[in-house]
Amino acid sequence: MDIHSHCEPDRACVTHASLDLEVDTGKKELRGSVVLSLLRTDREAPLVLDAKGLAIESVTGSDGGVRLWQLGPDDPNLGSALTVELAWADTSLRIAYRTTARSEALQWLDPDQTADRSAPFLFTQGESILTRTWIPLQDSPGVRITYDARVRCPGGLTAVMSAEQAGRDPDGGFRFRMDRPIPPYLVALACGKIEFRRISDRCGVWAEPSVVDRAHEEFGDTEKMVQAAEALFGPYRWGRYDLIVLPPSFPFGGMENPCLTFATPTVLAGDRSLVSLVAHELAHSWSGNLVTNATWSDFWLNEGFTVYFEGRIMEKIYGAERARMEAQIGLADLEREMKELAPRDQVLRIDLGGRHPDDGFSEVPYVKGALFLQRIEELFGRGRFDRFLRSYFDSHAFKSITTAQFVEYLRKELLSQDRALAAQVDLHLWLDEPGLPPDAPRAQSKALAEVDRQIEKWKAGKDPAGLDTREWVTQQWLHFLEGIAESLDSASMAKLDEAFRFTQTGNDEILDVWLRIAIARGYAAADERLESFLMTVGRRKYLEPLYKELAKTEAGKQRAQSIYARARPRYHAVTTSSIDEIFAGKQR
Ligand code: BES
Ligand code: ZN
Q1: Backbone CA torsion sign across 270, 275, 281, 285
Q2: Residue 391: CA atoms inside 13 Å, Cβ hemisphere, count?
Q3: What is the CA radius of gyration of the chain?
């Protein structure tokens, strides 16, 4: 039962979607049709779909005849139920429709919002429940579909999708085919002036011409990552693994759209130091895309497994120390965030009754989820745990499962083999209680301990320029900044800036932390950079804390609102819905 969808798949279920769409960058609308193939267990039952912000034009059955349809009440989170009366013989349905300005999955960019500033750009973001805003379908992660598509777009633009490329039409349309069943949130489209660079036979990167070479360099380890992942948890089952670097308003770091990860340009640090994001999105090709959370309450099954898996890939390619650094930083982020979260939001199996899936979004499903798996690994040993995971992916491939189903499988295939060890795994505590269990593994990195030593020296009064920071990597700088944040003031920030040029850094992850501290400590020299960052970057993980920090003082709030008024039209709906809440006085 998925409380975030209207559909009733037990009675009439969509199995395939065949899209035929025209991308109109002038009107900012998608127009065309979808043909849905149906599996009907109850011939008396109507077909119930999800639709939000769509203009439905006509609905026809298998024989081409019109069918009666009706849109139910429009829930602000879920949209409407689109109920269609089927004829006895209908095995498919054609819906002609167009998207509207309320189609929140879509972001239409004017040329000046792109890197090259020469052409418009469109991308979609389906997870968690936004696919229904550009395709009427059964938008539940428990309902898997295959799809194919024909997409026409203005001359000079290239369309790419989360699918295999299936050639061009004589009229220039792009064709795609996804023949493995995927949850609807993974149907994705991007369209813009983009170019491709090959990384390996099965990997490559798409980006705007001025970005594509930098992206190609940054993602040079991608094929190695795929091989490392395969060696751990079995064959990569999606054919190609490509990435596309989107314009900076992309609301996430990355999105694991099958065959084609969508990525933010903020990951392009120039030194591959932020590529754990690629490891993460790639890992979703197993955890998430192959085995999917059946409902959004089970989201930790997607993200917790993926963070765990990401760490294993990073360890294989960049060594145990790099993996420990990232794990220690992740744990610190979790503990910092957990202090602000209500107890009901600190659990892995989360109750989302009456709420949007996004309300469960935090470090909890990610980091606490990964720590849970790491704890089991620690107890049972890597050999046994890896064999367990491998068979978990194989036996649930192309299925969507709940936490209860995972627990049943865990008990049967692993816990039952060693009673003494199993007794040490407190499933209830890990899955259903708030906070972090006392047996959570705590990564300790030597490189970060070295940073702690320099922090002590700095606190004892040593000049920043005299600290031993040679050869520090991004993760050490992040740890450094978080470690001194509380002790900084505007004057000491100026000294640090003089020594290390933080305000000018080309690394957005470091910049984000620096800017957050600058707001909190009233360091005005970063104001200009802050404003240009807020005006261009749309990544929610960066913007939400920055706006929240600004909103803490009356003057800051004024300034934030003035920037937001100008920046808001440049953000994706995922980001504006979170930032709107800050100014509405609500906090998630
Ligand atoms: N699947 C998520 C993004 C997502 C989550 C979209 C929930 C919509 C709803 C993606 O895999 C992700 O976790 N991205 C992270 C980066 C990662 C390195 C932790 C992000 O965007 O920051
Ligand atoms: Zn993820």
Answers
A1: positive
A2: 10
A3: 24
Structural contact between residues 570 and 113, judged by C-beta atoms closer than 8 angstroms: yes
Express each pLDDT in 57-80 by its tens digit.
999 999 999 999 999 999 999 999
Cα of 281 from ligand 2 centre, angstroms: 6
Distances (CA, A) of 118 to 189, 216, 536: 20, 21, 16
Q: What's the pLDDT at 588? A: 46
Contact call for residues 227 and 209 (beta carbons, < 8 A): no
What angle is formed at CA 212 by the lines to CA 208 and CA 216, rounded to 5 degrees? Answer: 155
Task: Find out whether 30 and 24 touch, Cβ atoms under 8 Å.
Answer: yes
Nearest atom, ligand 1, residue 302 CA: 1
The answer to whether the CB of 258 is under 6 A from ligand 1 is: no
- Categorize the per-residue pLDDT at 585 as very low, low, confident or very high, splitting at 50, 70 and 90: confident
List of residues 6+ apart from 274 with CB closer than 8 A? 266, 267, 474, 507, 509
For atom 6 of ligand 1, the residue with the nearest CA is: 127
Among 293, 352, 357, smallest CA distance to 77 is for 357
Atom number in ligand 1 closest to CA 358: 9
The per-residue pLDDT for range 377-436, each reduced to its tens digit, is 999 999 999 999 999 999 999 999 999 999 999 999 999 999 999 999 999 999 999 999
**Ligand 1 mean position to 303 CA, how many Å?**
8
Is 280 a pocket residue for ligand 1 (Cβ < 6 Å)? yes
| pLDDT confidence bin for 586, thresholds 50/70/90 | low
Closest ligand to C-alpha of residue 277 is: 1
- CA dihedral (539, 541, 546, 547) in degrees, to 10, reads 80
Cβ of 296 closer than 6 Å to ligand 1, yes or no, is no
- Against a cut of 0.90, is the pTM above it? yes
Average pLDDT over residues 534-556: 98
Share of the chain above pLDDT 90, in %: 99
* Ligand 1 site, residue 284, Cβ cutoff 6 A: yes
Alpha carbons 341 and 334: distance in angstroms, whole number: 10
In this predicted structure, the answer to whether residue 107 has a pLDDT above a threshold of 70 is: yes
Handedness of CA 168, 169, 172, 174 (dihedral sign): negative
Omega of the bond prior to 128 within 30 degrees of 0, cis? yes
Q: 357: which 2 tokens?
A: 């899936």
- How far is CA 200 from each of CA 212, 223, 247, 275, 276, rounded to the nearest angstrom? 15, 6, 24, 17, 19
Ligand 2 centroid distance, CA of 284 (Å): 7
277 within ligand 1 shell (Cβ under 6 A): yes
| 358's tokens | 């996004």
Catalytic residue list: 281, 366
